[in-house]
Amino acid sequence: MQSRFAIGVAALVLAVAAPAYAQVDISGQWAARVTEDQPHRAPGAELGDYTGLPINAAARQKASVWDASILSQPERMAQPHPAMYFMRGPGPQMVVTRRTDPVTHALVAYTIEGVFGRDDRIIWMDGRPHPSANAEHTWEGFSTGVVQGNRLTVTTTHAKWGVIQRNGVPSSPKAVMTEHFIRHGEYLTLVSIVDDPIYLEEPFIRTSHFMQSANITPDQRWLFEVVDEVAGHPRGYVPHYPLGTKQDGFAKKHGLPFEATQGGTETLYPEYEQKLRQMLRSNASTQSAR
After folding, report:
1. Residues with Cβ < 8 Å from 16, sequence gap 6 or more?
2. Relative to the CA of 102, which of 60, 162, 182, 249 has its CA 20 to 30 Å away?
3. How many whole angstroms separate alpha carbon 96 and alpha carbon 104?
4. Taking 70 as the threshold, does the pLDDT of residue 94 lie above it?
5. Closest CA to 197 of 172, 161, 221
């Protein structure tokens, strides 16, 4: 007879050799925590504030002529936020539900209810491929997910043109978003990475946080009602700022060099601090000379 020790060693070897099937589950009710970036996610970023964004000249030009009043046009009043932004604000206070096969009980998808405009999303978990590049683009895009250790990784393609920030900083239909949902008990961290060959110089990364709740009700006020007229504008007017507008209000308000507020890869790294200090000294010298 084998000794208990030998049996125990054999069992341990088998356990180590066997693959691990860790299964993170993001289903439940989740309340957004916005204490770290409330000004950007609630009232919204100010015009001309592109700090922390690796945007290129095309994105900067697009944002500088954007006027939020465009959303008051009848054809845009029901426009939701796109996939590249709607997990940021407002909220969302969301309900995540597991959708399983009624026969096998295998996980088919997660659905997320509660994003702005109720443009609720589906994350397919059954291994289906993404559609052709020529397939229809939607506000929520097409999302597939796979579990990797303690995180759910989601890839989203086929999203419409939209914004990554509510002051007009754009995202293109060619953008691809990768999300990592990481759960720690009653806390959920979402790491979002946007790759956009049209408007970004390098991947744009940010995090959002949620806390488990028991009384989330997707807000019905986020269902839009379209009216016939846009007050204060003649029929056919398209809200915009003229091409070449310099959105320097944010820089002046906060006493910052205009260049430092315009984003770009260079501004994201610690080395830029020295350049910023030099610009501040130069501005101070110019003002004192006056």
Report:
1. none
2. 182
3. 21
4. yes
5. 172
Q: Name, in order, each residue with C-beta under 8 angstroms of 278's C-beta and a sequence gap of 6 or more.
A: none
Is 236 a member of any domain? no
Residue 5 lies in a domain: no
Q: How many CA atoms lie within 13 A of 168 on its CB side?
A: 23
Same-domain check for residues 262 and 213: no
The DSSP code for 43 is I
Measured between alpha carbons, how far is residue 122 from residues 83, 102, 109 in Å? Answer: 11, 18, 7
- Closest Cα to residue 54, out of 165, 190, 159, 174? 165
CB atoms within 10 A of CB 110: 22
Over residues 104-141, the pLDDT tens digits come to 999 999 999 988 877 889 999 999 999 999 999 999 99
Residue type, 244: G
Radius of gyration of the chain (CA): 24
| Token pair recorded at residue 132 | 């052709």
CA-wise closest residue to 205 among 221, 219, 216, 189: 189
C-alpha to C-alpha distance for 286 and 290, rounded to whole angstroms: 7
Give 150's DSSP letter.
T
Assess contact for 143 and 150: CB atoms under 8 A. no
Q: How confident is the model at residue 154 (pLDDT cuts 50, 70, 90)?
A: very high
Indicate if 140 and 269 belong to the same structural domain: no
Peptide bond into 90 cis (omega under 30): yes
pTM for this one? Answer: 0.86
Say if residue 74 is in the same domain as residue 152.
yes
Bridge partners of 204? 194
49-63, 97-111, 211-225: segment of lowest average pLDDT = 211-225
Q: How many structural domains compose the chain?
A: 2
H helices of the chain, in order, are 4-17, 38-39, 57-64, 249-254, 272-289
Give the sign of the dihedral formed by CA 207, CA 125, CA 91, CA 61.
positive
